[in-house]
Design brief:
CATH architecture of the largest domain: Orthogonal Bundle
CATH topology of the largest domain: Arc Repressor Mutant, subunit A
CATH class of the largest domain: Mainly Alpha
Structural class: mainly alpha
Number of strands: 0
Strand content: under 5%
Length: about 180
């Protein structure tokens, strides 16, 4: 079913909307959530919460790209769950991903930090837009979808060393770009 038709079902408040959303994007959302949480049950719960959140926000929202809208909600809910579950322990799979890119991110401890994080986010989006498609795909798969380097390499038809080197170079370019803008010290 087309995304616009699914959105129309939400506006009609038809329960079929959730069924169609799950049928079309359920597997994608579960994979995304599971990469963050490393647990099938927690991932399934987050996906169900994401479907409920979409039900509660459409209407009035009418997302342009339904899959991106749903993935953003799923990812945010999974990150919140991850934060709760790992308050005192470490989830190596996701924390390693965060550590890799942490030098390019700002911590949000104050209003100023949140504003800085917003500026950094805008610059990262611009930076990603200026990259070659292949490099951007590798970066987004690693740091947005939290994919393992091995998975990315397999899907891209490259070696793990190739992916590692590209990620390292991209992080270095990103740091240099953010430093040039005065967003990193």
């Amino acid at each position: 079913m087309e995304d616009q038709r699914i959105i129309d079902l939400f506006f009609e408040r038809s329960e079929q909307a959730i069924a169609e959303l799950s049928k079309k994007y359920g597997r994608l959302c579960r994979a995304l959530s599971k990469r963050i949480l490393q647990n099938d049950q927690d991932a399934e719960e987050c996906v169900n919460d994401a479907f409920l959140a979409v039900w509660n926000t459409i209407p009035p929202e009418r997302p342009d790209i339904l899959s991106a809208y749903l993935c953003r909600i799923t990812r945010n809910l999974s990150l919140k769950r991850h934060s709760c579950l790992t308050a005192r322990k470490r989830n190596t799979a996701y924390d390693v991903v965060l550590e890799e890119v942490s030098e390019c991110l700002a911590a949000k401890d104050s209003v100023e930090d949140e504003l800085l994080a917003g500026e950094i986010s805008a610059h990262i989006n611009h930076f990603l837009g200026s990259m070659k498609k292949k490099d951007r795909v590798i970066f987004v798969r690693r740091y947005w979808f939290c994919m393992e380097i091995r998975e990315i390499a397999e899907e891209m038809g490259e070696s793990t060393n190739y992916v590692n080197v590209h990620l390292h170079r991209t992080r270095e370019k990103l740091k240099k770009c953010l430093k040039a803008e005065g967003l990193l010290v």
